[in-house]
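== Sequence entry ==
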Amino acid sequence: MVIFAVRMSVKDLLEQYQNTPRLFQLADRLSFAQPQKTALKDLQGSSSQFVVAAAFQHSACSQLNHLIILNDAEEAAYFHNTLENLTEALDIFYFPSSFGQKR
């Protein structure tokens, strides 16, 4: 998916993501009764945060809990911050890993 944003607000851009057929497929998969493992690959820049924000706000997924695992603490912190800004949600939690950290 390629979207060019010229003088488009973040809200308008998020709405573009919410109305794509691929997002409807993702929301259907996430709303299955059985837990699903889904990987988002080859997304550039903030597109992964937009996809996740659009899925969070989809009616089929808005009441579900989601767990997002990222490669490292820095990537997770940026993802968390962007997701909070896109969704304006206060119930997004960041759980940094303590694995492998030396004190």
In short: The longest helix spans residues 73-87. The radius of gyration is 15 Å.
